Amino acid sequence: MVLTAKDIAGPRDRGWLRYLRSDTFPTFWCAGCGNGVIMQALARSLAARGPAPEQVAVVTGIGCFGKADDYLTTHSLHGTHGRALGFATGIKAARPELVVIALMGDGDCATIGGNHLIHACRRDIGVLAVVSNNLNYGMTGGQFSATTPEGSITSTSPYGHVEPAFDLCALVQGAGASFVARGTCGQPALLRRLFDEALAHPGFAFVEVMTACPTHYGRANRQGDAPKMMRGIAEAYRGKTGVLFRRETAGFSSKYRALQTARKAADGRVGETR
């Protein structure tokens, strides 16, 4: 039997299904992976906000979460490794009326894509960046990433990882992000609320979701099965979830539009759309 989106929805709560391609289920992800929880929470938030799928552009890179665009009815752009935010920035700059979302893993966002991350934060462009942080490169064999905790066992640190990890939320706040939040895949209701708030924010919104990789990281570090890992994550991040930082901002698109309007007025071209 192939699981469809209708099988996981309540009988009176199916508006969010229009954002999902149920014909592509079951998903690529391993049993116990939290990416499906993130996808459902995001689809529910989009449904509550109301944009048509064709008014949403989702950008992904390479990695486990990079497969997310396969399951969405929105516009999608599947880019190269570490470049999701670069592509998302271009889309939002050219088409500011679109809802633009970048879905990335910790490797794609902060390890290979770290430079794009800090400049998207500095630019404060109205992109929602969602990072599924499972503390390793899950799709390629469990190598360490920039968020792997010191001392962890991975396929590229078999005797223990000696590098300190990034705190992604602290990193993006320092780089200029105007909305920073964190949740876990064991808190789907919280994720929904965070996505609701992030989608309404005019500047760069960053939501980190701590999730389990039982196939690689959990097995290598003897953390048990997925439910046990999720309980461990919930305990480790107790008091460290929710909206961590927010400041009022006009956002890049609004400021750029004002600059265009002022320039056209000075040139006598008021009323032009481009």
Name some characteristics of this structure.
274 residues, single chain, 9 helices, alpha/beta, 36% helix, Rossmann fold, seven-stranded mixed beta sheet
Short description:
The protein has 274 residues and is α/β, with parallel strands linked by helices.
Structural Rg:
19 Å
* Alpha carbon gap, first and last residue: 51 Å
Number of strands: 7
**Strand line-up across the major sheet:** 2-1-3-4-6-5-7
Helical/strand content category: alpha/beta
> Regarding quaternary structure, how should these chains be classified?
single chain
**Unreliable stretches, pLDDT < 50, 5 or more residues?**
none
Domain count: the total is 1
Q: What would CATH call the homologous superfamily?
A: Thiamin diphosphate (ThDP)-binding fold, Pyr/PP domains
How would you describe the shape?
A: globular
What's the main sheet like? 7 strands, mixed
- Helix coverage percent: 25-40%
What is the CATH first-level class name? Answer: Alpha Beta
User: Overall pLDDT, averaged?
Assistant: 92
Helix count from the secondary structure assignment? 9
Q: Per CATH, which architecture? A: 3-Layer(aba) Sandwich
CATH topology: Rossmann fold
Q: In what range is the share of β-strand residues?
A: 5-15%
Helix-strand pattern: HEEHEHHEHEHEHHEH
